[in-house]
Amino acid sequence: MSISETDTLVIGAGSVGIAVAYYLKKHDPTLDVTLVDCGQPMAFTSAQSGENYRNWWPNPMMRAFTDRSIDLMEEIALESDNFLQMTRRGYVLATRETNIDDHLAELAAGYEGSPDNQIRMHSSGGESYLRATKEDWQNAPNGVDVLTDKTLIKSAFPYFDKEIRSVIHIRRAGMISGQQMGQYMLQEFRVAGGKRLTGKVDHIEKEGGFSVQLDDSAVTVRAALIVNAAGPFVGEITAMLDMDLPIENWIQQKIAFEDTKQAIDRTMPFAIDLDPQQLDWDGDERQLLAEDPDFAWLAEELPGAIHCRPEGGDKGSWVKLGWAYNSASAPVSFTPTFDDQFPEIVLRGAARLNPALRAYYGQLPRNMVHYGGYYTLTKENWPLLGPTGVDGFYLAGALSGYGSMAACASGDLLARHVLGKDLPDYAPMVSPLRYGNPEFVAIMNAQQSRGIL
Ligand SMILES: Cc1cc2nc3c(=O)[nH]c(=O)nc-3n(C[C@H](O)[C@H](O)[C@H](O)COP(=O)(O)OP(=O)(O)OC[C@H]3O[C@@H](n4cnc5c(N)ncnc54)[C@H](O)[C@@H]3O)c2cc1C
């Protein structure tokens, strides 16, 4: 048996654990930090991310938290010559509704208190609406444009369903390469003297500090502090110290394929169809589905928020489609299984907003990739970041469908906690200890939307 010692052990080398390790060394280069993972870095959930970012949230705390993360990603983009391939064409939320008061109320609530994020209405003309013709992030506007003029929508988004009547364009939003960002931070962590171990954490003893057994006790790591960033396995690690976490794991899937029929305009921002829908089956197909108890749900109404985007930049040729409609809790596994029907389901769903995708019905390209992973989330869909009830044991998890974009703010916050530095205003609201906080409970009881896209 070998023994190693460290000040701080970070468990999990996904986007979040790597960001924690990176910011620990950035804030205090003298700190001895070890990052452990049972597999390759960035190979589990973080490899499945859609790699989109946005500062849209129906809640001002979560908006401030993601704004902070985007600030930090922009810092990395500047210092690394945009190694993380950050772009910013925005998120476009489209609906056939003309009454969008609920969406406007969410926007007003989310952007409350943020002077940079004005909401601009375009109900006629549209001369002042800045189109997202360029992908670079440095010259893109802030705030939100709301388009309700039919002619403007048609001219700005000619490829959308002709029935679209309102478009909400979130401007501080776009895409990154999560893989490149992870690689950059890992490299900087190494250069700063950070250490890495490969091994599966399977037992933790609290004895002053911690004694952590890897790989059936082949290796013991003695650590003064632990940050648990084990992604979907964050609950399993916490259970080793006899604690329960208020989390679930939901499988979510995506597909990507080469757009050989050029159905998707390369300049289209990340586009989301907000409306619930019945999938586009022909009469016989619908009848057959409705009669089969296992598949009848496919003939019924499905929720909104299906999304589509070009992949690989202006010169690329791939597209990505996703639809986070699943909300069934599942046991976690390193080899999750996916639904064989998903590619055709997501294609038909996405074709409602982008009718040119119908060209692929029943004939998705052979090189189509079907993948996915877990959204690990709390009931309110806010993360668990900070100290726990166990002295020296910290959490960095439950980042649901926003962990790539929120990794930097999460890493920075955890480093501040560990090193006793100033904390941002949102720290108590994302703390694992918030459930007894009356302010948090009041917000939760009033929350209408969890901001899941
Ligand atoms: C389909 C899908 C699409 C998504 N799209 C987006 C998006 O567009 N934008 C966005 O911001 N986010 C998105 N997300 C969310 C994002 O991918 C996750 O929130 C993020 O990757 C979580 O990172 P993590 O580091 O917490 O977890 P992981 O990447 O899962 O890392 C955890 C690590 O812990 C290791 N580990 C676990 N148990 C042990 C153990 N016992 N011992 C040692 N190591 C262990 C694992 O091997 C793993 O490497 C998406 C997620 C999915 C599933």
Task: Please give a structural write-up.
The protein is an alpha/beta fold and 453 residues long. It folds into 2 domains: 2-51 and 178-246 and 380-446, 3-Layer(bba) Sandwich (FAD/NAD(P)-binding domain), CATH 3.50.50.60; 91-174 and 249-377, D-Amino Acid Oxidase, Chain A, domain 2, CATH 3.30.9.10. 27% of the residues lie in helices and 26% in strands. It has 11 helices and 21 strands. The strands form 4 sheets. The protein has a 9-stranded mixed beta sheet with strand order 5-6-7-4-14-17-18-13-19. Strands 1, 2, 9, 10, 11, 12, 20 and 21 form an 8-stranded mixed beta sheet that branches. A hairpin with a 6-residue loop joins strand 17 (306-311) and strand 18. Helix 1 (15-27) packs parallel to helix 5 and helix 2 (60-79) crosses helix 9 (403-419). The radius of gyration is 22 Å and the shape is globular. The model has no long low-confidence stretch (mean pLDDT 95). Residues 11-17, 36-39, 43-46, 48-53, 200-201, 229-233, 237, 252, 254, 372-375, 397, 399-405 line the site of flavin-adenine dinucleotide.
User: How is the biggest beta sheet arranged?
Assistant: 9 strands, mixed
How many helical stretches?
A: 11
**Strands ordered across the widest β-sheet:** 5-6-7-4-14-17-18-13-19
**What is the CATH class name of the largest domain?**
Alpha Beta
Query: What is the assembly state of the chains in this entry?
Result: single chain
Mean of residue pLDDT?
95
Count all strands and give the number. Answer: 21
